[in-house]
Amino acid sequence: MEIKSTKLLYTIAMLILGLFMILPFLWMISTSFKTPNEVFQYPIQWIPQKVTFEHHIKVWTGKESFLIYYMNSLKIALICMVGATFLSSLAAYGFSRIEFKGRNLLFMFYLSMMMVPPQVLFVPKFILFDKIGIYNTHWALILPGLFTIFGVFLMRQFFMSVPQEITESAFVDGAGHFRIFFQLMLPLAKPALATLAIIDFSWHWNDYENALVFLLDRDLYTVPLGMQNFILEFNIDYNGMMAATSAGIVPMLLVFLIGQKYIIQGITGSAVKG
Protein backbone atom coordinates (compact mmCIF):
# COMPACT_ATOMS: atom_id res chain seq x y z
CA MET A 1 0.00 0.00 0.00
CA GLU A 2 2.84 2.37 0.83
CA ILE A 3 4.52 1.59 -2.49
CA LYS A 4 1.34 2.49 -4.41
CA SER A 5 1.00 5.74 -2.45
CA THR A 6 4.63 6.64 -3.22
CA LYS A 7 4.13 5.95 -6.93
CA LEU A 8 0.98 8.07 -6.91
CA LEU A 9 2.85 10.99 -5.29
CA TYR A 10 5.66 10.67 -7.86
CA THR A 11 3.10 10.63 -10.68
CA ILE A 12 1.34 13.74 -9.35
CA ALA A 13 4.69 15.53 -8.86
CA MET A 14 5.81 14.71 -12.42
CA LEU A 15 2.43 15.82 -13.76
CA ILE A 16 2.72 19.19 -12.01
CA LEU A 17 6.31 19.58 -13.25
CA GLY A 18 5.21 18.70 -16.78
CA LEU A 19 2.47 21.34 -16.64
CA PHE A 20 4.99 24.00 -15.57
CA MET A 21 7.26 23.02 -18.47
CA ILE A 22 4.44 23.25 -21.00
CA LEU A 23 3.19 26.68 -19.84
CA PRO A 24 5.60 28.70 -22.09
CA PHE A 25 4.48 26.57 -25.03
CA LEU A 26 0.82 27.29 -24.29
CA TRP A 27 1.56 31.02 -23.83
CA MET A 28 3.30 31.06 -27.22
CA ILE A 29 0.31 29.56 -29.01
CA SER A 30 -2.13 31.77 -27.12
CA THR A 31 -0.15 34.94 -27.92
CA SER A 32 -0.09 34.12 -31.63
CA PHE A 33 -3.90 34.50 -31.66
CA LYS A 34 -4.07 37.67 -29.51
CA THR A 35 -4.15 41.34 -30.44
CA PRO A 36 -0.99 43.37 -29.65
CA ASN A 37 -2.67 45.02 -26.65
CA GLU A 38 -3.30 41.66 -24.99
CA VAL A 39 0.29 40.35 -25.12
CA PHE A 40 1.47 41.69 -21.75
CA GLN A 41 -1.93 42.01 -20.13
CA TYR A 42 -1.86 41.02 -16.44
CA PRO A 43 -3.19 38.70 -15.21
CA ILE A 44 -2.47 36.56 -18.26
CA GLN A 45 -5.45 35.73 -20.40
CA TRP A 46 -4.74 32.24 -21.68
CA ILE A 47 -7.78 32.32 -23.96
CA PRO A 48 -7.83 35.49 -26.12
CA GLN A 49 -10.93 37.65 -25.87
CA LYS A 50 -10.94 38.01 -29.63
CA VAL A 51 -9.20 35.23 -31.57
CA THR A 52 -7.43 36.62 -34.62
CA PHE A 53 -5.62 34.74 -37.40
CA GLU A 54 -4.08 37.95 -38.73
CA HIS A 55 -0.58 37.20 -37.44
CA HIS A 56 -0.50 33.64 -38.81
CA ILE A 57 -1.64 34.89 -42.20
CA LYS A 58 0.94 37.70 -42.14
CA VAL A 59 3.75 35.21 -41.42
CA TRP A 60 3.09 33.36 -44.69
CA THR A 61 1.74 36.12 -46.95
CA GLY A 62 3.53 39.22 -45.66
CA LYS A 63 6.06 41.37 -47.47
CA GLU A 64 8.80 38.88 -46.61
CA SER A 65 7.10 35.50 -46.59
CA PHE A 66 8.27 33.05 -43.94
CA LEU A 67 7.89 30.21 -46.47
CA ILE A 68 11.38 30.70 -47.97
CA TYR A 69 13.00 30.51 -44.53
CA TYR A 70 10.91 27.44 -43.77
CA MET A 71 12.00 25.66 -46.95
CA ASN A 72 15.66 26.61 -46.39
CA SER A 73 15.60 25.14 -42.89
CA LEU A 74 13.86 21.98 -44.10
CA LYS A 75 16.43 21.53 -46.85
CA ILE A 76 19.41 21.95 -44.53
CA ALA A 77 17.98 19.97 -41.60
CA LEU A 78 16.81 17.00 -43.70
CA ILE A 79 20.05 16.67 -45.69
CA CYS A 80 22.13 16.93 -42.51
CA MET A 81 19.89 14.48 -40.65
CA VAL A 82 20.08 11.79 -43.36
CA GLY A 83 23.78 12.32 -44.04
CA ALA A 84 24.87 12.52 -40.40
CA THR A 85 22.82 9.47 -39.42
CA PHE A 86 24.30 7.36 -42.21
CA LEU A 87 27.92 8.53 -41.84
CA SER A 88 27.79 8.26 -38.04
CA SER A 89 26.50 4.70 -38.33
CA LEU A 90 29.21 3.80 -40.83
CA ALA A 91 31.99 5.24 -38.66
CA ALA A 92 30.51 3.66 -35.53
CA TYR A 93 30.50 0.24 -37.19
CA GLY A 94 34.19 0.63 -37.98
CA PHE A 95 35.02 1.62 -34.41
CA SER A 96 32.97 -1.23 -32.93
CA ARG A 97 33.34 -4.16 -35.31
CA ILE A 98 36.56 -3.74 -37.34
CA GLU A 99 39.76 -4.58 -35.48
CA PHE A 100 42.76 -2.39 -36.30
CA LYS A 101 45.77 -1.14 -34.39
CA GLY A 102 45.10 1.90 -32.20
CA ARG A 103 41.32 1.73 -32.69
CA ASN A 104 40.37 2.64 -29.13
CA LEU A 105 43.05 5.35 -28.90
CA LEU A 106 41.85 6.90 -32.16
CA PHE A 107 38.26 6.82 -30.95
CA MET A 108 39.19 8.50 -27.67
CA PHE A 109 41.08 11.20 -29.57
CA TYR A 110 38.07 11.66 -31.87
CA LEU A 111 35.75 11.84 -28.87
CA SER A 112 37.95 14.44 -27.19
CA MET A 113 37.11 16.86 -30.02
CA MET A 114 33.73 17.33 -28.34
CA MET A 115 35.49 19.46 -25.75
CA VAL A 116 36.42 22.06 -28.39
CA PRO A 117 33.83 24.90 -28.27
CA PRO A 118 32.13 25.38 -31.66
CA GLN A 119 32.72 29.14 -31.47
CA VAL A 120 36.49 28.55 -31.66
CA LEU A 121 36.03 27.09 -35.16
CA PHE A 122 34.14 30.03 -36.66
CA VAL A 123 37.23 31.88 -37.95
CA PRO A 124 38.99 28.79 -39.43
CA LYS A 125 35.73 27.68 -41.07
CA PHE A 126 35.12 31.19 -42.41
CA ILE A 127 38.57 31.23 -44.05
CA LEU A 128 38.15 27.69 -45.42
CA PHE A 129 34.65 28.28 -46.79
CA ASP A 130 35.73 31.54 -48.39
CA LYS A 131 38.69 29.82 -50.08
CA ILE A 132 36.64 26.97 -51.53
CA GLY A 133 33.75 29.24 -52.53
CA ILE A 134 30.91 27.99 -50.34
CA TYR A 135 30.68 30.97 -47.98
CA ASN A 136 27.20 32.51 -48.09
CA THR A 137 25.71 29.25 -49.42
CA HIS A 138 23.78 26.48 -47.71
CA TRP A 139 26.76 24.17 -48.22
CA ALA A 140 28.52 26.10 -45.45
CA LEU A 141 25.94 24.64 -43.06
CA ILE A 142 25.34 21.28 -44.75
CA LEU A 143 28.91 19.98 -45.15
CA PRO A 144 29.95 20.42 -41.49
CA GLY A 145 26.52 19.15 -40.44
CA LEU A 146 27.12 15.79 -42.11
CA PHE A 147 29.62 14.87 -39.38
CA THR A 148 28.71 14.63 -35.72
CA ILE A 149 30.96 13.28 -32.98
CA PHE A 150 28.01 12.66 -30.70
CA GLY A 151 26.32 10.60 -33.41
CA VAL A 152 29.35 8.35 -33.81
CA PHE A 153 29.54 7.89 -30.04
CA LEU A 154 25.82 7.09 -29.77
CA MET A 155 25.83 4.56 -32.60
CA ARG A 156 29.07 2.93 -31.43
CA GLN A 157 27.59 2.37 -27.99
CA PHE A 158 24.60 0.66 -29.59
CA PHE A 159 26.71 -1.51 -31.90
CA MET A 160 28.88 -2.53 -28.95
CA SER A 161 25.74 -3.87 -27.23
CA VAL A 162 25.05 -6.23 -30.16
CA PRO A 163 26.56 -9.68 -29.36
CA GLN A 164 29.77 -10.35 -31.24
CA GLU A 165 28.53 -13.87 -32.08
CA ILE A 166 25.94 -12.41 -34.48
CA THR A 167 28.52 -10.81 -36.75
CA GLU A 168 30.90 -13.74 -36.38
CA SER A 169 28.24 -16.16 -37.60
CA ALA A 170 27.57 -13.83 -40.55
CA PHE A 171 31.29 -13.92 -41.42
CA VAL A 172 31.20 -17.72 -41.31
CA ASP A 173 28.30 -17.64 -43.79
CA GLY A 174 30.45 -15.59 -46.16
CA ALA A 175 29.09 -12.09 -45.54
CA GLY A 176 31.45 -9.12 -45.74
CA HIS A 177 31.50 -5.95 -43.65
CA PHE A 178 29.26 -3.94 -45.98
CA ARG A 179 26.64 -6.71 -46.16
CA ILE A 180 26.69 -7.12 -42.38
CA PHE A 181 26.39 -3.36 -41.92
CA PHE A 182 23.47 -2.84 -44.31
CA GLN A 183 21.53 -6.08 -43.85
CA LEU A 184 22.23 -6.91 -40.21
CA MET A 185 23.40 -4.00 -38.08
CA LEU A 186 21.28 -1.18 -39.52
CA PRO A 187 17.95 -3.04 -39.12
CA LEU A 188 18.89 -3.83 -35.51
CA ALA A 189 19.83 -0.19 -34.90
CA LYS A 190 16.44 1.36 -35.76
CA PRO A 191 15.86 2.71 -32.20
CA ALA A 192 19.32 4.30 -32.07
CA LEU A 193 18.97 5.64 -35.62
CA ALA A 194 15.59 7.20 -34.82
CA THR A 195 16.99 8.80 -31.67
CA LEU A 196 19.97 10.24 -33.53
CA ALA A 197 17.77 11.46 -36.39
CA ILE A 198 15.45 13.33 -34.02
CA ILE A 199 18.34 14.94 -32.12
CA ASP A 200 20.25 15.87 -35.26
CA PHE A 201 17.18 17.35 -36.97
CA SER A 202 16.47 19.47 -33.89
CA TRP A 203 20.08 20.69 -33.79
CA HIS A 204 20.10 21.91 -37.37
CA TRP A 205 16.53 23.22 -37.39
CA ASN A 206 17.35 25.45 -34.40
CA ASP A 207 20.90 26.35 -35.45
CA TYR A 208 21.20 30.13 -35.17
CA GLU A 209 24.92 30.82 -34.72
CA ASN A 210 26.21 29.08 -37.86
CA ALA A 211 23.44 30.55 -40.01
CA LEU A 212 24.17 34.02 -38.62
CA VAL A 213 27.92 33.76 -39.37
CA PHE A 214 27.90 32.00 -42.74
CA LEU A 215 24.75 33.32 -44.45
CA LEU A 216 24.44 36.89 -45.72
CA ASP A 217 21.71 36.92 -48.38
CA ARG A 218 18.21 37.15 -46.99
CA ASP A 219 16.87 34.56 -49.45
CA LEU A 220 19.24 32.01 -47.84
CA TYR A 221 18.05 32.66 -44.28
CA THR A 222 16.75 29.86 -42.10
CA VAL A 223 13.87 29.96 -39.60
CA PRO A 224 15.95 31.25 -36.64
CA LEU A 225 17.32 34.11 -38.76
CA GLY A 226 13.88 34.80 -40.20
CA MET A 227 12.69 35.66 -36.70
CA GLN A 228 14.66 38.91 -37.01
CA ASN A 229 11.92 40.20 -39.34
CA PHE A 230 9.69 40.64 -36.31
CA ILE A 231 12.19 42.85 -34.47
CA LEU A 232 11.23 46.26 -35.78
CA GLU A 233 13.07 49.58 -35.40
CA PHE A 234 11.19 50.80 -32.33
CA ASN A 235 9.32 47.74 -31.11
CA ILE A 236 8.99 43.96 -31.42
CA ASP A 237 6.10 42.21 -33.14
CA TYR A 238 5.56 39.58 -30.44
CA ASN A 239 2.35 38.29 -32.01
CA GLY A 240 4.04 37.67 -35.36
CA MET A 241 7.08 36.14 -33.68
CA MET A 242 4.91 33.74 -31.68
CA ALA A 243 2.93 32.80 -34.80
CA ALA A 244 6.17 32.08 -36.68
CA THR A 245 7.57 30.12 -33.75
CA SER A 246 4.38 28.06 -33.51
CA ALA A 247 4.76 27.14 -37.17
CA GLY A 248 8.47 26.49 -36.66
CA ILE A 249 7.97 23.71 -34.12
CA VAL A 250 5.68 21.68 -36.41
CA PRO A 251 8.51 19.89 -38.31
CA MET A 252 10.22 18.89 -35.05
CA LEU A 253 6.95 17.48 -33.73
CA LEU A 254 6.42 15.52 -36.95
CA VAL A 255 9.93 14.07 -36.86
CA PHE A 256 9.43 13.05 -33.24
CA LEU A 257 6.02 11.47 -33.93
CA ILE A 258 7.42 9.50 -36.86
CA GLY A 259 10.49 8.29 -34.97
CA GLN A 260 9.00 7.69 -31.54
CA LYS A 261 7.61 4.25 -32.40
CA TYR A 262 11.13 2.99 -33.12
CA ILE A 263 12.36 4.42 -29.82
CA ILE A 264 9.50 2.73 -27.96
CA GLN A 265 10.25 -0.54 -29.78
CA GLY A 266 13.87 -0.30 -28.62
CA ILE A 267 12.84 0.37 -25.01
CA THR A 268 10.29 -2.47 -24.92
CA GLY A 269 12.69 -4.80 -26.70
CA SER A 270 15.40 -4.10 -24.14
CA ALA A 271 12.90 -4.70 -21.32
CA VAL A 272 11.92 -8.08 -22.77
CA LYS A 273 15.57 -9.10 -23.15
CA GLY A 274 16.23 -8.01 -19.58
From TrEMBL:
The chain crosses the membrane at residues 7-29, 76-95, 107-127, 139-159, 180-199, 238-258. The keyword Heme does not apply. Residues 70-259 form the ABC transmembrane type-1 domain. Its main location: membrane. It is found in: Cell membrane. Pfam families: BPD_transp_1. InterPro entries: MetI-like (IPR000515), MetI-like_sf (IPR035906). Keywords: Cell membrane, Membrane, Transmembrane, Transmembrane helix, Transport. It is a multi-pass membrane protein. PANTHER family: ABC TRANSPORTER PERMEASE PROTEIN MG189-RELATED, ABC TRANSPORTER PERMEASE PROTEIN MG189-RELATED-RELATED. Belongs to the binding-protein-dependent transport system permease family. This is ABC transporter permease subunit. It comes from Paenibacillus germinis.
